[in-house]
Amino acid sequence: TEYASPHELADLMGVTAKDIIQKCFSLGKFVTINQRLDKESIELIALEFGFEAEFISEVEATAVLIEADEPEDMQIRPPVITIMGHVDHGKTSLLDYIRNSNVVAGESGGITQHIGAYEVTVEADRKITFLDTPGHEAFTAMRARGAQVTDIVILVVAADDSVMPQTIEAINHAKAAGVPIVVAINKVDKPEANPEKIKTQLSEAGVLVEEWGGEHQCQEISAKKGIGIAELMEKVLAEAEIRELKGNFSRDINASGIIVESELDKGKGVISTVLVQRGFLKIGDPFVAGNTMGKIRALMDERGKRILFAGPSQPVRVLGFEDLPQSGDVLTVMSSDRDARDLAQKRQVIRREHEFRRSTRVKLDSIARQI
Ligand code: GDP
Ligand code: MG
Predict the structure, then answer these.
(1) Contact between 45 and 24 (Cβ < 8 Å)
(2) Does ligand 1 have an atom closer than 6 angstroms to the CB of 222?
(3) From the alpha carbon of 86, which atom of ligand 1 is closest?
(4) Does the beta carbon of 92 lie inside 6 Å of ligand 1?
(5) Where in the cell is it found (predicted)?
(6) What is the per-residue pLDDT for 146?
(7) Nearest ligand, measured from the Cα of 223
(8) Closest to 154 measured CA to CA, from 128, 126, 188
(9) Cross-strand bridge partners of residue 128
(10) Helix (H) or strand (E) holding 275
(11) Strand 117-122 to strand 74-76: parallel, antiparallel, or no bridges (unpaired)?
(12) Helices 229-243 & 91-100, crossing angle to 10 degrees?
């Protein structure tokens, strides 16, 4: 395994890269300034300069140090919701209804673009953020990367159908993630709707609704007719209240968030929907996001309106990326452009090395198979 370059070592020990290279030379090693040295060489060189080398993992080396949360900065934030359920049970219809019924009067048009996350304002000016991730993939991909983005799952089950494989899958995902489930029994406008049957099947799948003595709130709805949606929102907010979901609302910390979705726009470049988790993203902030970096050039809400900053649980469209980030990447604001670039470069080097090692292994494997 290779670690730091002479350049990085020099920085760490407060000597020049030339000193390091010369030392390597005297030890019989020929290296260039940006070449990464092996562990033994680093140990030797460090000793020569009176240091003891201590190695940390790549994960640690490329992590961002996060300041601790001060209790006084922690405030209640809007809950982040993912709607899950079997195909055709009405997930999109529910989200569309919620979105369209909350278009503020005077605001031109609803939200037509698919951008992966929306904030809606319900009664008494309370906000709820919805993640609109295609299927369950993004949810699981983000979780696999350790990003916990969803606070509550709304499980949609069609009352004219049954608990289906993807219903079970959704229940399993939510339970594995420790995310509470609020049940929405949809399509109750249909004559053949049988909500009681659904509740029975759900109980068999380990989801017992409240009225039957369980812990899961349940609401009968029609996403098409708008029946029971306000009540569903109330139940979601009640669930959020019990959990006292808080976020760090300090204006002084380096903000961070999760990449929900990204696209490449011909004119504007990379546009990414970010769910802010901590602090406030502001125009001009330098940041890293996975292996890429940038500087926030513009922030927009879900209607494309320019905004100046975005805080905890707020989804925001961000311009200013150098490259496409991946869904589930953490975006972290850095203290300077230089810090952002240094960290992004370090991550890129490590990624390239991993790719190189992987491709070498593949080649060796195929050679081995041929022999
Ligand atoms: P998704 O696959 O879970 O996103 O489901 P969709 O929202 O695309 O809905 C699938 C079909 O069910 C569409 O034809 C909808 O119009 C219909 N649908 C959704 N909700 C309702 C409802 O409450 N009542 C009725 N009658 N039809 C619905
Ligand atoms: Mg859909």
Answers:
(1) yes
(2) yes
(3) 3
(4) yes
(5) Cytoplasm
(6) 57
(7) 1
(8) 128
(9) 120
(10) strand 269-278
(11) unpaired
(12) 90
Strand ranges, E, within 132-255: 152-158, 181-186, 218-220, 246-248
| Gyration radius of the chain's alpha carbons | 25
Angle (CA) 10-15-21 rounded to 5° is 60
| Mean predicted lDDT score pLDDT of the chain | 86
Residues comprising the chain, all counted = 371
The model's pLDDT over 3-49, given as tens digits with 9 standing for 90+, comes to 677 888 888 888 888 998 888 888 888 888 778 788 888 888 888 88
Measured by CA distance, the residue closest to atom 11 of ligand 1 is: 88
Q: Is 187 in the pocket of ligand 1 (CB under 6 A)?
A: yes
* pLDDT score, position 106: 44
Tell me, what's the pLDDT at 4?
Answer: 75
- Cα angle 279-285-287, degrees, rounded to a multiple of 5: 90
Instruction: Report the SS3 class of residue 11.
Output: helix
**Distance of CA 6 from the midpoint of ligand 2 (Å):** 53
In sequence order, what are the residues at sequence separation of 6 or more whose Cβ sits closer than 8 angstroms to the Cβ of residue 340?
Answer: 286, 287, 288, 293, 294, 295, 334
Query: What is the residue with the minimal CA distance to atom 6 of ligand 1?
Result: 90
Q: Which residues are annotated as a binding site for GTP?
A: 85-92, 132-136, 186-189
pLDDT band per the 50, 70, 90 thresholds, residue 124: confident
**Phi then psi for 38, rounded to 5 degrees?**
-80, 170
What is the value of ipTM here, to two decimals?
A: 0.99
Residue pLDDT, tens place only, 141-194: 666 655 678 899 999 999 999 999 999 998 998 898 889 999 999 999 999 999
d(CA 356, CA 254): 33
